[in-house]
Amino acid sequence: MIYFMFATGIENSNPTIEHGRVRVDELEKCRHYECWQQDFQLVQELGIQYLRYGPPIHRVWLGPGRYDWSFVDQTYADLKARNIVPITDLCHFGVPDWIGNFQNPDFPALFAGYARAFAERYPWVQLYTPVNEMYICALFSGKYGWWNEQLTTDQGFVTALKHVVKANVLAMKAILQVRPDAIFIQSESSEYFHAENPAAIGPAEFMNEVRFLSLDLNYGHRVSSEMYEYLLDHGMTREEYHFFLGNRLKHHCIMGNDYYVTNEHLMASDGNSRASGEIYGYSVITTQYSNRYGLPVMHTETNMTEGPKGDEAVCWLRKEWANVLRVRNDGVPIVGFTWYSLTDQVDWDCALRENNGRVNPLGLYDLNRNIRPVGAAYKQLIAEWRDVLPMQSVVLSLPIAPPSQQAQAGTGQVAQVVGKAGTLGAQSTPSASKEQ
Known about the structure:
- One of its GO terms (molecular function) is hydrolase activity, hydrolyzing O-glycosyl compounds.
- Keywords: Plasmid.
- This is Family 1 glycosylhydrolase.
- Helix content is 38%, strand content 16%.
- By secondary structure, it is α/β, with parallel strands linked by helices.
- Strand 2 and strand 3 (22-23) form a beta hairpin.
- The relative contact order is 0.14.
């Protein structure tokens, strides 16, 4: 029996800053390259079987058809031996120097080749996030001017977005050619924009449509007329838009929703916004996304700084878990929860825009690999809840096998992930049951 997927992640962001001159490698900053065996041991000690993890794309992918798999061979062999299920994250905010950035129109097809090469080398891997947080990646790179191409225009944003989402779609297709039962967990930021005053209602409504664009394109969901005009006005062609409508792979997908206290925004009448703090919360916003796409859901990221009292992160963990149960009890098929990440992170307080070396106490463990209070609380939460949340009470079928069962599971069957909206592919699902 497959149970609820409790997960963590090892932070592997790697964008460039200073117009490509500096690479921000979180695996290096958090000392994973030297501590990877210890990190995997910590995952096991927490009682966690699912790990959001991926190879450092800028070190592995050396050119078209050229790869250095040495570090990946070591780490993935160890994950397999430990029977940890990786949710493989192939592109996390950065690309190799030779690609340039997300404005490169060659990136999607080239990335599909990289994804296929990975799947062929590690055929036992079943779960993937081909491109992490596509909306945030395009926004920070093409509109905010923070990473990679560092553009500040709608044209830059739409161009990055169409390339990033096309890369994700082509990667899914390439992986499915190797592993027909692969399942894709789209980790995406779940956002909401609140109007500060009546004059801000229009700008807020506009941004509350923009927030869906990455998943609309990825799942082949038709956008509104206003969003269609926005896309065509800023660099997308009709043919490109119809590419996304014609490649609907959602029956292979779980929708991953990331939620932080910074995900809700207060919109001013001039179109500028600032963080509002938590107003609606994860359950309300995730239900909006679930109603739009009708897919099984996984809470794929959250964290909170430990804070001056030392219990802020623990309180946030309890709040997010209560939101997960609320979503589940309201009938949304939610299949997993993630505290991100395993260890503290570095320089996320400035969104990786500056190379300050400042440690952010967000992890289940600190960078010396000492457990934090939230790590102990998460370990206890998992122990208490894991056996009372069977996946079958949430969706009819979620055909996931851990590494130790991959030989028995085989790779010949096609996985059909089932959403609450009814039959997707060949199966259907009942409503989620109430808390056990």
